[in-house]
Amino acid sequence: MEKSIKKYFPIFVLPTLIAFTIGFIVPFVYGVFLSFCKFTTVTDWTWVGLKNYTRIFYVNGVLDTTFLHSIWYTALFTIVSMGIINVVAFAIAMALTKGIRGTTIFRTVFFMPNLIGGIVLSYIWLMIFNAVLQNFSKTIVSTQWYAFWGLIIVVCWQQIGYMMVIYIAGLQNVPGDLIEAAKIDGAGGWQRLRYVILPMLMPTISTCTFLTLTNGFKLFDQNLALTSGNPGKMSELLALNIYNTMYGTTGWQGVGQAKAVLFFIMVAIIAVIQNRLTTSKEVQA
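Request: output the structure for the sequence above.
Response:
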């Protein structure tokens, strides 16, 4: 039976491989090619070499800090949101696996924000933020830091419930015998968490860290709906910066494509580093 399955394995893989090639590999390779071209449509292009990549940082010989600002602004946003989401989601998951009454209701309530689309959610929060801030003659885009913390609140509120579910699944897979043995050996709550639960939970932590990391760097919908990059592009995250470059200025499509390639390389490198760090900790555990 096993040999028969292996024999027909290529037949089952082929449709998925074809779809992946058409839907991802071909557009990606062609996108990299277009980053070296000046184009208005994907069939109307002129080769310009590295000119698009230099125009990312220099426009008419003058340093353009917009893209550099969006890089560090996105990095800061990702670090802060990743930390808050994982810590709060883990804390809620720990509380909801203690056997308290109404656990199912609490899980549902915490998870519900994840079911709302990013744009709709952001418009709802935009009305809330501005209704509160108008009492102080401010709006969510009065400064880049008002916008920053507004984005943090929206993203955390949306994603904490989803990560909570993953952490709950991980906690339920921690062997109860190990925890009981630690109690018998005199380990306190903090010691059980540090030396038993967290090491056993490393695959789950790795998954949640990867998801929040990549979600933070790729955030677009909430940024567009909540702040649109205002004031003066100071709250513009990388994805929105690339979008505005591609569709906001005529003749800059190639530059936007070059930014997208750099963006992909950055996220790929960070994801690989994060995966290796968490994997090494799993092995040590």
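The CA atoms of residues 89 and 270 lie 22 Å apart.
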